[in-house]
Amino acid sequence: MSPLVQEVRREVLLPLAQATVLDGGEHDLDAGDGASGDERSGPGALVAYEPDPEEILRRLIPDYVEVSIYRALLESTASEHGARMTAMGNASKNANELIDGLTLAMNRARQAEITQEILEVVAGADALE
């Protein structure tokens, strides 16, 4: 991501997608696999949580939401600063180009005026002769 390219994103904070803490328990084993609680096969693992998973989520979800909102605010501020830097860089570049063009036009006008004055002096000197 560069300061020139900004991408708007939308993230859903709540409701949380199914968390692994809530997936399956001791009583949620597949009945068709023929495995008992001690002979589990597959990706699941027996995990004992202290306190229980609901209490963990009750404590963590407010912090998760708060940190997610704070992160979004920080990213928004950084994006705004990046956009301002880009805008100011472009404005400075355009102002310098305008100054260069106006300086060149002013120098040409001044040179034309000087040339005109020299021609008038030469013409006056020729008239006196």
How is this structure best described in words?
- This protein is mostly helical.
- It has a domain at 47-128.
- It is built from 1 helix and no strands.
- It has one helix spanning 53-128.
- It is rod-shaped.
- It starts with 52 loop residues before the first helix and ends with a helix.
- The model is unreliable at 19-38 (pLDDT under 50).
Question: What is this structure's SSE topology?
Answer:
Blueprint: H1 53-128
Identify the overall geometry: rod-shaped
Biggest sheet, in brief? none
End-to-end distance, in Å?
76 Å
Query: Please, how many helices?
Result: 1
| Total strands | 0
If you compute it from the alpha carbons, what radius of gyration comes out, rounded to the nearest whole angstrom? 38 Å
The fraction of residues assigned to DSSP E strands is under 5%
Low-confidence stretches: 19-38
Q: What's this, in brief?
A:
Helices cover 59% and strands 0% of the residues. By secondary structure, the protein is mainly alpha-helical.
